Amino acid sequence: MSAGLAVLSSGFRGFARYVSGVLGADAYAKYLEHHRASGHSGPPLTEREFWRDRTDRQDANPQGRCC
Amino acid sequence: MAAAPENRSGSSGREGAVDTDPALPPTAVDDAVRESEDSKWTPGKIALWAAISLLGGVAWFMLAIVRGETVNAIWFVFASVCTYLIGYRFYSKVIERFITKPDDRRATPAEYKADGKDYVRTDRNVLFGHHFAAIAGAGPLVGPVIAAQMGYLPGTIWIIVGVVLAGAVQDYLVMFFSMRRGGRSLGQMAREELGVIGGTAALVATLLIMVIIVAILALVVVNALGESPWGVFSVGMTIPIALFMGVYLRYLRPGKVMEVSIIGFVLLMAAIIGGGIVAETAWGADVFTLDKVTIAWGLIVYGFIAAILPVWLLLAPRDYLSTFMKIGVIVMLALAIIVVRPEINVPAFSEFASRENGPVFPGALFPFLFVTIACGALSGFHALISSGTTPKLVEKERQTRFIGYGGMLMESFVAIMALVAAISIDRGLYFAMNAPAALTGGSVETAATWVNSLGLAGVNITPELLAETARNVGEQSVVSRTGGAPTLAVGLAHIMQQFIGGTAMMSFWYHFAIMFEALFILTAVDAGTRVARFMLQDSIGNFVPKFKEASWRPGAWLCTAIMVGAWGAVLLMGVTDPLGGINTLFPLFGIANQLLAAIALSVCLAIVAKRGTFKYLWIVALPLAFAAVVTITASYQKIFSPTPAVGYFANNAAFSKALADGKTEFGTAKTVAAMEAVVRNTAIQGWLSVVFVVLSIIVIATAVLATVKAFRNRGTGTEKDNEDPALPSRVFAPAGLIPTAAERELMAEWEKVPANLRFERAGHH
Questions:
Q1: Bridge partners for B666 per DSSP
Q2: Domain residue limits, chain B
Q3: Which candidate from A40, A55, A61 shows the least CB-CB separation from B765?
Q4: What is the complex's ipTM, to 2 decimals?
Q5: How many CB pairs below 8 A link A and B?
Q6: pLDDT in tens, B74-126
Q7: Architecture in CATH for domain B1-228+289-765
């Protein structure tokens, strides 16, 4: 019973993680990872700054959405 | 970007030209190992593929050969999925092997240009979903519904065979070649490969085609919302919901995308339920019952404001909502069709398959069926998505087959499901909903009389059924609700109510379907206007440099106004068209979309030829030739056909003559003003067709010239290679959904590499 529940909950968590990846919700985490890995000298953007910067850059660089 | 010593990209010896770091495990599965894995047919593998082929064969037999009274919807699922699997496993591998020739030792743009923002290595399965959400919208939900006029079989064959041999090939090739060019856009690639003339023609054609596509998508929404207070309220509510989400993400809880999407989804459901309550009240019906012209103007004003507002406020949050809905809707649709398995009583070929005077769209099966269904089979618009965003996120070169080719197969499956949903409703109801009011007369009595007079086998519809359907879905009327969206919504409501909720839930499911179609379309309208505005600014910027500055407000606003004005004019023309709108304009949508596909395939043809692959050039030439023949024939008939229902100019001449003869009504136009409108509309539509086809012929011709030149120069090494230099990769990831044994082995080796070694980038910043 509890084992089945565990499978279900891990399956659901996997699905939620997948959907959030598709939505792009993990963009900041990936940015931090990149920032760490590439050895930047300055501190990374804060979460708030990052998302601001992200949407503001989309203003100047629109992405198509298909029909 | 530091230049690596391994930078040895040349036309000769492209494979194996990159030397990867010997301190790291291999970044690609050894070619010989992969080959042997691929060509080793274990009994289990043979049994699996024999079973898939057999099931697919039986399903096709049930659809195409057996002529029973009805056919079960499940056979559509089996026929399509089995064909996709075979196409993916065998045909796309041929393309990979002989045309794209990916090399996993090369770094992708996401690796060598990594910036943590635009260029980010993304898990292949996540990127598959991301790419799919970007390419699939309302298109595959609308075209197949309209094409169902000819029966289910022509559309089904074209959607399934077309995607395997044409649509998915285009998406895959464009994505791969763009990836090899650092994620360059289709326009930039056209310029590089086809020269100034071909490149400019491609740019102008793309811009015009976007205007048409946005206009006709908007027309679908207007037709779905006209005289529907429930629909207007719930779709209208998406604007404040998106604004709230935007503010929430910007100021309250930045970055909590999942959280705000769930809140938005709950609010959206509340808006659908609330719409039913509001539409019941006297004031609600009063305020939200709008005629189509008012809605069209509302959409035009909205389109302008939405395109100049900052992205964070409206576009980004609605995009989250739209993506969230997309995943939900597809899963729901698939589950419903598999669980309910509706019986289809539409014939394989209808009476209209062999005629050219169908009420839903005019013209003969060839070529008009092939332009009516564009999205889902071959959609040129995808080339704009497959170049640009997705190639900047791909982790390994080999994954483009799964993401590009596979993603398009998925969209095709959505088109098949939309077709099934639409044909599961009564045939008489289908024609009453999809014929223009000029034919049905607009009331349930006249519509029933007209449908029964068509002499369709097994069709005998009563005014009561039409009235009852409208009541069940919570609408005032379902007669002449053209555009495909309402028909799909009725079909979906019909299937879903058998699954959840019964008749009482039908109105909810209907408006749920209208809501997601409107949401997809509004996002496409919004994003399309923005992309077109930037293209226009860029083009004007070649003469007036100030326009190239994206942040220069007057330029941005002026270009936005021009683009919105252009699609708004076409939209109004469609809404007020005395001939019906959708039936005259939808062929133009398909033609435009497929001419864009012809342009994209032309660019691919030139690239493949320049890479020196002539033996397998037919893989690109085949879909290109088909798209070119279909669209040029369709354009030719639209321009030169003497049948007024088909030819724009023939219709123009007929109405002009009637006006000159002093008639006050002619055909379906009942007033002189309406007749003048027909004359004006047909002239515009006719000249648009002329411009499109001329531009596309220029692009195709320049591509053929580039191909011939490449053939003459073959082996001389004089053909310029526009790929980015090859850089060695420092990462590994499997190519497809399920890793192979060799890939798993390699992944295990990479697991052992210390983290600090895995993706270090010396000399960066």
A1: B669
A2: 1-228+289-765
A3: A40
A4: 0.93
A5: 151
A6: 999 999 999 999 999 999 999 999 999 999 999 999 999 999 989 999 999 99
A7: Up-down Bundle (1.20)
